[in-house]
Amino acid sequence: MFTQIEGNIYTIPVALVGNPLKELNCYVIKDDERSLVIDTGFRMNECYTALTEGLAELGIDMNRADIFLTHLHADHTGLAPEIATPDTRVYITHEDGGRILYRLRAGFIDTGAEYREQGFPEEELLHLNDAPSMKYTMNKFLSFTYVSDGDELTYGGRRLQVIETPGHTPGHACLYDRENKIMFLGDHVLFNITPNITTWPNFRDPLGHYVHSLMDISIYDVRLPLPGHRAVSGTMAERIGAIIEHHGARIREMLDILDANPGMTPYELSGRMTWRVRGKSSAWSDFPLSQKWFAVGETAAHLEYLLCRGRVKRKFDGRVWHYSTD
Q1: Do residues 47 and 15 make contact, with C-beta atoms less than 8 angstroms apart?
Q2: Are 224 and 271 members of one domain?
Q3: d(CA 159, CA 317)
Q4: Does pTM surpass 0.90?
Q5: For the chain, what percent of residues have pLDDT higher than 70?
Q6: What span, in angstroms and rounded, lies between the C-alpha atoms of 67 and 64?
Q7: Residues 160 and 293 in one domain
Q8: Band of pLDDT at residue 291, cut at 50, 70 and 90
Q9: What are 26's strand-pairing partners?
Q10: Domain identity same for 254 and 197
């Protein structure tokens, strides 16, 4: 199944079964000479079926098509090795591509060290590698073609500028069709949900980078924003403003909680925060474990933002970090 968006731009909805994101918007720029597929879906059977059937209906031959991966997350990259042929170029930034290849070379299994330091109980850490981001990530090597900020790709008569937007991941990137005022956003700007910002090894202050990246793309004239998930509502400018305000409100809530409860771990602080799951407020005790990884990671990213700016302090007790405002 596919939907024509405009001209030679199409979207294939790739169902993310059992995931609150619901679907990935895989975009295709179709051309008789060489097409471009933007993002792929999890490495799971349901995603593979949806993606390959959509590509077949569109008449896309992957021997004459390339792939652009906006960022390293498994719901955007997992199927790339499954659909790529030896003639397919797979574009990604060096930062995110390098992290994928490092995991593959290391045969990476997350031991939970970072999550343990954030205060996760051991019984929950036992299920860490059951998370979709671990189970459904790519498991085959690819030869990436690395792109950088300002690079230009041409597909289907469209000149596409690469815009690096670090934050959601260290090497996230968008594509901008300046002539037609279209931007392929990946997960940098989502309209019905807020992109998750979490901590990363060797990537300091992800929230600071993310806000800076939002400001960077706010200067572009975008008539048609194309996000990686869900639909579009309102304008880019309105949504960027709302996302920045969302993070400001979250930071203010964190500081109020820490003022009243100094010495909390990120896990404990997350349990006091206001969260919405599937559009409804949810008590921490009822929070799905699969979503706790994201919630605590986001709390940790906000605490790192505050730590970098001298608004909080932290102490390590030999196992867990504790934060306070004094």
Answers
A1: yes
A2: no
A3: 53
A4: yes
A5: 97
A6: 11
A7: no
A8: confident
A9: 12
A10: no
Claim to verify: residue 222 and residue 247 sit in the same structural domain: no
Final residue in a domain of this structure, among 235, 264, 291: 235
pLDDT of residue 235: 95
Domain containing residue 106: 3-235
Average pLDDT over residues 162-180: 98
Residues 154 and 179 in one domain: yes
Average pLDDT, the chain: 94
In this structure, the answer to whether residues 264 and 299 fall within a common structural domain is yes
> Who has greater pLDDT, 108 or 46?
46
CATH of the domain at 66: 3.60.15.10
Question: Which of 240-249, 270-279, 315-324 bottoms out in mean pLDDT, i.e. has the lowest?
Answer: 270-279
3-state DSSP of the chain:
CCEEEECCEEEEEEECCCCCCCEEEEEEECCCCCEEEECCCCCCHHHHHHHHHHHHHHCCCHHHEEEECCCCCHHHHCCHHHHCCCCCCEEEEHHHHHHHHHHHHHCCCCCCHHHHHCCCCHHHHCCHHHCHHHHCCCCCCCCEEEECCCCEEEECCEEEEEEECCCCCCCCEEEEECCCCEEEEECCCCCCCCCCCCCECCECCHHHHHHHHHHHHCCCCCCEEEECCCCCCCCHHHHHHHHHHHHHHHHHHHHHHHHHCCCECHHHHHHHCCCEECCEECCHHHCCHHHHHHHHHHHHHHHHHHHHCCCCEEEECCCCEEEECC
Q: Are residues 186 and 303 in the same domain?
A: no
- Residues in CB range of 61: below 8 A, 6 or more apart: none
Indicate the residue among 175, 210, 235 that finishes a domain. 235
Q: Are residues 20 and 151 in the same domain?
A: yes
